[in-house]
Structure formats: structure tokens, C-alpha cells
Amino acid sequence: MSENLIELYSNQQTLFGRGSIDRLVPLLAANPQPTLLFCGRSFLNSPAWARLGATLNDHILGYEIVSHEASPDEIDGWVTRWRGHVDRVVAIGGGSVLDAAKAFGAMMQHPLNIARYLEKVGDTPVQAVTLPLIAIPTTAGTGSEVTQNAVVTDQQHIKVKASLRHPVFVPQVAILDPDLLKGAPDRVLATCAIDAFTHLFEAYLSRKGNLFSQQNALNGLQLFMQAWPYLNQDDSRGDAAREAMMMASWLGGVSLSSAGLGVIHGIAGELGAIKPFHHGEVCGRLLFPFLDVLAESAHPEQQRLMAALAERLLPDETAPPALALKAWLQQQAIVPFWLEGPTLAAEEVDWIVARANSKNGWVNYDPATLTEMITAAWRVV
């Protein structure tokens, strides 16, 4: 048997297409049961809510607003409030909303507080039980609608960003409606999309990968490149771009679930434990110095994979593939999200580096290289 056996986890039902959110109410009506909605406040102010809200309210018990990456205390509080009253969950929002709903649905079927089950800090294995979940992303980036993990962040007490993970936590239903991306600020579109790129790129380069995962990732990267320059256009080209990016994000979730991630997320996960930075922006900022490091790599498998990527995605470029990719991403971005921004303290950099790792990358990067990547991405004060 191959050492790198790839397993595919996906939704039982995936609805894709512009306007597909209109299928939500008929889905709920076809199988009535007590349902709780998780959403962001922006969704409640959206045209989709204005059109569907009155009817949707007839099929839900209530809703919880998620405005940031959920903490263990928040999830435990929601479970205490709704245990015994909810049999199904709907999540409409960005990755933080979807992850909060996934964690809630799982913990409704588990007896202990969520921290006991989290990777990195927990002491109890999760069980293969969760409430059914319908996931509807309103951003294209995390791929949470198709992943088996829910990210939970505690920046106050135990300072950890970790996953609750099991294959049954993949949402049963995903509704992928590219029109839900319309009207999002340019920075949100760009930083979410670069998160999808990072999922695809790191999964493509993963030492756990094989032809199956690499081709899935390449397909997603190709869709990303079709979409990246046009995400904010209010015309048919913009519609096609948002459709392609929604698909790229879903493929990013499939890819990371199959092959894992690399050093960018190995750093981002620890930084997210202490700083409230947007995760997609963190990944994007780290991506560019990583591409500089990758351009200098002599590792034969990294070189082979980058050459194959360049042949598929950048066939006319003569620069080293990593540098050509970096230049294209920055030149074609709808907003230069990597400029200016927040700062880090030197002691925070040391804290992050002491805990970061290279995950499933071919190279195990040393602390000096990790520090170099972080200080290239943020100004250190």
C-alpha cells in the first residue's frame, strides 16, 4: 500500500450555483426539526436576509451572532443555552461562523467542556457524533463548509488556537452561492481568497500528498488565478470570478483535509493564539516571504512540484516559479493587503517561533527561518 494514501472527505450533499441559497428554506421545510441559525451580523443586513428572512424565521428557533473566532467559553455557553432544544444547525457566514456552528453541533452531543476535546490541549478523544449541519459560506477562503475540523481560539486564558476534528464534523450539506460574495469589501474578498490559495498551495506541496491531492489542488489554484484579479467587479466577469473563487475555496478545504498544510499555517496557528489578526491576512502576509524562501530551496521534491505548477499555471514565465508566482499575486491583487497593518513585539515573535512548526512541508524550517518569515511580514517593535 502507498505510504501516502489519500482519503477524501466531503459533504453528503453540495449545492452550487448563483442563487442556490434559495434552496435553504425548501430543505428545512422538507424535514422539519428544531433548528438554530449561526450567522454574522453582516448577513442580517444583506439582500439575501431581506429576501429570505421572514420565511426562514418560520423554520428556526432563533439565531446566534458570531463576530470573531469563537472561544471555548462562548461555545460552552451556547451549548448550555440550547442543549435539549436543538436538533439541527444552519450556519451562514464566513469561516468563523461556520467553525463556531460546527463546534457547537459537535459539543451538543458531547458531555464535557470543549477544551477537553481540543487538539494541542485536550485530554479526551472526540466521538463520531454531531448534529446535522447545513453550511453556507458568505466568503470564499476557509473552505470550512467541507472540512472535518472546527477552529477554536482562546486568546485570554490558555492562549491556544486549535481544532476540534473528526470526519463526521464535515457539514452534511453545503450550499455554495457565489452571489453571497457580492458587495463584500475588497480587503475581505482578497484576504479570504488568499487563505484559499494558501490551503491549496500548502496541500499541493505537502509531503503527505500524491497525484490525487496534487491534482485537486492544482485545479483549485487554476480557478483561483482565473478569479483573483476580478473579484470585486460588478459585471459578468466579476460574477464568473466569484463563482470560480467559491469553487477554489471548496477545493482548498478538500485539499487540506486530504494532504494537510505547511509552515505558513504552522506559524499562523500560533500567532492566532495571541493576536486578533484576520487569519486570511496572516496567511497572505506569510505567503510572500515563504515564496522567497521557496525560491532558494534545493529540495528536489519542492523543485519538482514548483516546476510542474509553473508549467500548468505560469507557462510563459521565465523567472523562478516561486518568484514568478509572488509577482503575479501582488500585481493582480485587488488591494495590497500586505502593506502597512499591525505590528508585533519582539517577545511575541519569540513566543510564536517557540511553538510554530512546519507541519507537513518537505522541509523542517529552523527558528531563524521562521523568525525571518515573520519579521518580513510584520514590522516588529
Question: How is the topology of this model organized?
Answer:
Elements: E1 13-16, H1 24-30, E2 35-39, H2 41-44, H3 47-57, E3 62-65, H4 72-82, E4 88-93, H5 95-107, E5 133-137, E6 149-154, E7 160-165, E8 173-176, H6 186-205, H7 211-227, H8 236-259, H9 263-271, H10 279-295, H11 300-313, H12 321-332, E9 343-344, H13 346-355, H14 367-377, E10 379-380
InterPro entries: ADH_Fe/GldA, ADH_Fe_C, Alcohol_dehydrogenase_Fe
Family: Belongs to the iron-containing alcohol dehydrogenase family.
Keywords: Oxidoreductase
Please provide a written account of the structure.
Helix content is 47%, strand content 12%. The protein is of the alpha/beta class and 381 residues long. The chain has a 6-stranded parallel β-sheet with strand order 1-8-5-4-2-3. A two-stranded antiparallel ribbon has the order 6-7. Strands 9-10 form a two-stranded parallel ribbon. Helix 10 crosses helix 14. It is globular, with a radius of gyration of 20 Å. The mean pLDDT is 96. Keywords: Oxidoreductase.
